[in-house]
Design brief:
355 residues; 7-stranded mixed beta sheet; 8 helices; 32 strands
Length: 355
């Protein structure tokens, strides 16, 4: 079995961060979300991975490399434009050959991995196997309709009037039969080749399509709120470790990781929190569910439930929360502005905030 990982999307819902950074590389607990998917694929015993890339290909290729440190062998597949999930399967046809494969959306996060799903597929080998989960707003997803026996009878992409609340999770397993379906597709009203249409073609052609309704945690990390929530979830499993320097005047409470080269002085950190390599926390409070990336500076400030990307600084600010702050950002005091702050800042931003 091979894997096809989709990492070509532009990430419009995460702008301005994604104006200068691939959405699949935005970090969760200081590790790109894409890496969690690749690790899950490796854990399922799959080694050969094709990554579909677009305009951000150089950044993704630099981060992932040949995949060896993540336990996989990576081949990059260029997609000139994001023309749908089934289009990604189409351009990967030669790479996939006649092998079974798992298709994994590179900005999705699934707790517990996919090993059991891959094992079940290898045993039963339906033409397609999909994962479903209940969502509050199914109009934002591909939606499945099941019969009384729980079999998939119909699929629709982002329907205006959904027939169920069961959304397709961003992991699909296929035999080579899906290539017949993709070859027959025409662009949808959105101008894309929809994977839901391909699966519907298989159903209409009498092929077996199985589904699994997952009760565990799944998130499409396409917006700031979901990124912060996934960051919270991952930090919950931290194992405390101090590899950097923490002075006697500082207090670490709960699950706190201070990476090598990081320095914490006269500060209070309440976990779960990760402080990245070379970061500085001075005269500050860092609250739960915060990820501080490499080279960041937090001085005379308070922050919690936030993600700071590399080399950003927050100085003299009370208080920052529920924020996603890009690379090389400077947040400093300014007069006559509110004391509570909620920020989404792109790379190289400079923002003045009152103390």
């Amino acid at each position: 079995m091979k894997a096809l990982v989709l990492a070509g999307g532009s990430g419009t819902r995460l702008r301005p961060i994604t104006h200068t950074s691939a959405k699949q590389l935005v970090p969760v607990a200081n590790k790109p979300v894409l890496f969690y998917g690749l690790e899950a694929i490796a854990d399922a015993g799959i080694r050969d991975v094709g990554i579909v890339v677009g305009d951000t290909h150089a950044e993704i290729e630099a981060a992932v490399g040949d995949g060896s440190r993540l336990g996989v062998n990576v081949t990059y597949l260029r997609q000139d434009a994001p023309l749908g999930l089934a289009h990604a399967v189409k351009i990967a046809r030669d790479y996939l050959g006649d092998d079974d494969f798992v298709m994994y959306l590179g900005d999705n996060f699934i707790v517990g991995g996919i090993r059991s799903l891959v094992t079940r597929f290898g045993h039963d080998r339906p033409a397609a196997q999909i994962m479903l989960t209940q969502v509050p707003d199914p109009t934002q997803f591909g939606v499945a309709e099941l019969d009384d026996q729980g079999r998939v009878v119909a699929l629709e992409e982002k329907p205006r009037q959904p027939k169920s609340d069961l959304a397709l999770v961003g992991v699909y397993l296929f035999t080579a039969a899906v290539h017949e379906a993709v070859a027959e597709l025409k662009p949808s009203a959105r101008g894309e080749l929809e994977i839901t249409d391909a699966i519907q073609w298989l159903i209409d052609d009498g092929r077996r399509v199985e589904s699994t309704i997952i009760s565990g945690y799944w998130k499409d990390t396409g917006n700031v709120a979901d990124m912060l929530e996934v960051n919270r979830l991952v930090l919950e499993s931290l194992t405390p470790a101090v590899r950097g320097e923490v002075d006697a005047a500082s207090e670490l409470i709960g699950r706190v990781v201070v990476e090598e080269g990081a320095v914490v002085t006269r500060s209070r950190i309440v976990g779960p929190v990760v402080v990245g390599p070379g970061a500085l926390v001075r005269d500050s409070y860092v609250g739960p569910f915060t990820s501080v990336a490499a080279g960041c500076v937090i001085a005379d400030s308070e922050i919690e439930y936030s993600i700071l990307l590399a080399r950003s600084s927050i100085t003299g600010v009370r208080r920052v929360e529920a924020s996603l702050i890009g690379h090389d950002v400077e947040v400093t005091p300014a007069p006559n502005t509110p004391r509570a702050h909620r920020l989404v800042l792109g790379d190289h931003s400079k923002v003045q905030i009152s103390a």
